[in-house]
């Protein structure tokens, strides 16, 4: 094979095109059939009428969108944005110093610290939520330790804690990757030129790690925003998020067109965020 | 390099935040009593109950079948995709498509795939979960491998091509060895995400035997018992072993790539 390629140096452009096809087509075909087509199915359903007993009647309508701007549903979207936003912000505030600390450790300790951060993420997601049910519920551990009878579960705060607990490692890892890749000489140069630690951080470290920050925020915000399991188990359905609403439309109300419309709204929010992210990453 | 001392605080706070719930969870799995809230003495009885629980054992087997199969598909597709995107195209649209499953909420993907399988009149089962899991896993493998590619020095690949090697030879002999740590890391990530995945499996499994996360979800909805704690503790032990093994593999990969 090697000798063949050596003796027959085909036109580089043709070889390149063949290579592009060979590398790209399997994955892209897979993603078109099992990602883009399903998305198209969901989104097209948003423009159809609901059957009387569930299902879809293929008749064009915009009534699903009229229903979407009902304050009831808008407040659910707003609530989801708020909860996911607070979670992301907290994850960044906790995650950045943590990642920075790990990046400064000696090589062996780095590995151990990273493993320690990631390990809970490698345990089952549902079980991690279960741990918080144990801690926060009425007869739970927190109340028995504090000797209180607080209702900690079924509040927005419980959802934020659950989301943060679940997705914090997704913030720390890209931040760590970005910080670790920094050349320490840059910071040393900045310090030698008289910059304070804070100035060095603000002018050197932070701008150079912005791509990691953006990736981490995206990794935390997206699963938080569209989540339905955590608000289901820790929020008790009281402070419902858009994920709960979508699930209910598809599995209980059997209103697939409206469920699809809510999904469309959710995707729209995420597309805006992605655009902001890629715009900011290009500027950084 | 000087290390700011204050950074100890957020790091250790994070560690406590992450491990305290787990520690409580494990401690309660050894509870002799019936409650997961009050400790009434040491016992291993819940582990015995767990091993006798057929739902759990079959759930575990199903989860492993799904995770191994979907990771195998995703590692191949994701690696090729990463190289293709990094070296052979500048298309932003293709970039976005490749990243989309990683950033798309699992709920959207689960519902979309459910609608696809129904539209195609496909029966649901483990095969549909495998196909579904490979979608997001491919994106994660591609993303992880790509970080490695964009950081990598292209001069070796250029040298290989200047010396007359075709794209395939260059890929196998030059690019792939450099990528090995990334591929292993990507595959491990895909495997773990699949083991853990609940939402998409929930929507695409139909009436087939449930995977472990679905089993656990129904157990939790049924009530809080130390049996779930015992199961959690065992999964924790398995995860820990897997992470250590993964770390070792990655290290070996890295030292080989540096040689």
TrEMBL record, chain A:
Pfam families tied to this protein: BPD_transp_1
A GO BP annotation: transmembrane transport
Principal place of residence: membrane
Topological type in the membrane: Multi-pass membrane protein
UniProt protein name: Spermidine/putrescine transport system permease protein
Localization (cell): Cell membrane
ABC transmembrane type-1 domain sequence ranges: 77-279
Transmembrane segments: 21-48, 83-102, 114-137, 157-179, 208-230, 258-276
Family that this chain belongs to: Belongs to the binding-protein-dependent transport system permease family. CysTW subfamily.
GO cellular component: plasma membrane
Keyword list, A-Z: Cell membrane, Membrane, Transmembrane, Transmembrane helix, Transport
InterPro entries per UniProt: MetI-like (IPR000515), MetI-like_sf (IPR035906)
Superkingdom of origin organism: Bacteria
Family annotation (PANTHER family): INNER MEMBRANE ABC TRANSPORTER PERMEASE PROTEIN YDCU-RELATED, INNER MEMBRANE ABC TRANSPORTER PERMEASE PROTEIN YDCU-RELATED-RELATED
Keyword Mitochondrion part of the UniProt annotation: no
TrEMBL record, chain B:
Membrane topology: Multi-pass membrane protein
Cross-referenced Gene3D superfamilies: MetI-like (1.10.3720.10)
Coarse class of the protein's main subcellular location: membrane
CDD domains in the cross-refs: TM_PBP2
Keywords annotated in UniProt: Cell membrane, Membrane, Transmembrane, Transmembrane helix, Transport
Subcellular location field: Cell membrane
Top-rank lineage group of the source organism: Bacteria
Gene Ontology cellular component terms for the protein in this record: plasma membrane
Membrane-crossing segments per the record: 12-30, 64-85, 97-118, 124-145, 183-208, 228-246
ABC transmembrane type-1 domain location: 60-246
Pfam families reported in the protein's UniProt record: BPD_transp_1
Annotated GO biological process: transmembrane transport
Protein family according to the UniProt entry: Belongs to the binding-protein-dependent transport system permease family. CysTW subfamily.
Protein name, entry field: Spermidine/putrescine transport system permease protein
